[in-house]
Amino acid sequence: MKAGFDKQKITPNLDDTKLELSGYGYFLNRYAQGTLDDLYVTSMILEGDNGETIAFASADLIGLSDWIVDNVKKRVVNKADIPPSNILLAATHTHSGPATVELVGCGEVDESYAGDIINIISDSIINAYKKLGSARVGIGTTNLPDVSYNRTGGTDLDITLSVMKINGASPGFLINYPCHPVIFGKDSRMISRDYPGAVADFCDGYVLWSTGCCADVDPIVNRTSKNKTNQEDLLVMGRKIAETTKSLEETITMDHFNIHVATREVYLPFNTSFTLDKEKEVKEFKNSSSKLELDAPIEGFIRYLDIVEERLKRDTCPGREANITGVKIGDLSFIALPCEIYTSTGLMIKKRFPQTIVSAYTNGDIGYIPPRAEFESFGSYGAGRAQLIYNPFPFTSGVEQLLVNGVFDVLNDLEHRS
């Protein structure tokens, strides 16, 4: 088995450009005023004993637009013997980085910066490929409580910390935990990786962060801080996850494995008959407790509604394709999904396939995929306004099951291949 790593800085040069931070709305003009900690892309190449090779890159960004993903893959396959289906591009989903995915009212994408990160991410993957050397891999999981909470008031919560340890010429880790990187709130104008960056800083070696199923989960400190910027909270959370990772690392058995990859494209239909009730939306917005909308100015929300209304009139798109990529390494299956996934969905997947890591915001971001219960009221943030930040129409109420069925197909395929 072989592995290679690389890490490159993707912090924008604020002397040359004016960039909006992304993740909160609506139309807040969150232009970056400085850098608290640098943003990076960290890349890993793994080659199995059977010769199958995968690339995994984790970027400290809110998300990656489809066109960014496509262009990175095109550049990589031209210089490395890795098929595009075997390239996984994840975003940590920090809400304190530049806009890199189109979200209405949550920051404009700067095309020049996006072009830069296409080059840097692809170069990082190619550099990691050139560093391939003998390696061994081990995987471990443990529970990490008192770090996160369900921000919707629900009881679903997954506290599983999953760690893949790679020993080679350079040590590396892939760490997965389901919690939004939103310790820094909408009041912050500083660039930051949020808590995943602190985790990386407290660990030794390359760290690739994978954010799990956390559409309804925030850091527990936000229960009282209401997303007010507090660097100490970030360091405390980062240190706790890093220390738990180090304790878990000592119990992991290292070995070498075959690698298998399977993919599916799943079509997720829109509710194209949806109509917008602006008066109702304004009323619900004023009463919203969503962290995205808390204390947001009504003027920006009305501007958002005007754009949504115009898109509803002119757009005829019937749905979106979701690419599901599965990777099996030993007994572990890794599922990459290009969307925001709820805790209950992740638990549903793990109930049937317990040894599975689910990585959200990977190979794109098509928006929230809510459980059917969330669609009972359009007042539900994830099934309502958040849908229209990403897409011209909300998804239909059965999208969660369609996605999960696709995941099960991929996992069954991987079972048969191994």
Notes on the protein architecture:
By secondary structure, the protein is α/β, with parallel strands linked by helices. Helices cover 30% and strands 26% of the residues. The strands form 7 sheets. The protein has a 5-stranded mixed beta sheet, covered by helices on one side. Strands 9-11-12-14 form a 4-stranded mixed beta sheet, with helices on one face. Strands 16-17-18-20 form a 4-stranded mixed beta sheet, with helices on one face. A hairpin with a 2-residue loop joins strand 17 and strand 18. Helix 3 crosses helix 5. It is globular and about 60 Å long. The two termini are 16 Å apart. The mean pLDDT is 93.
- Count of helical segments? 10
Structural class: alpha/beta
Gyration radius over CA? 20 Å
Overall body shape: globular
How many DSSP E strands? Answer: 21
Task: Please give the order of strands in the largest beta sheet.
Answer: 6-5-4-1-8
Mean pLDDT: 93
Percent of residues in helices: 25-40%
Straight-line distance between termini:
16 Å
Parts with pLDDT < 50 across at least 5 consecutive residues: none
How much strand content do the residues show? 25-35%
Largest sheet: 5 strands, mixed
Summarize this structure as a short list of keywords or feature phrases.
418 residues; alpha/beta; five-stranded mixed beta sheet; four-stranded mixed beta sheet; 21 strands; globular
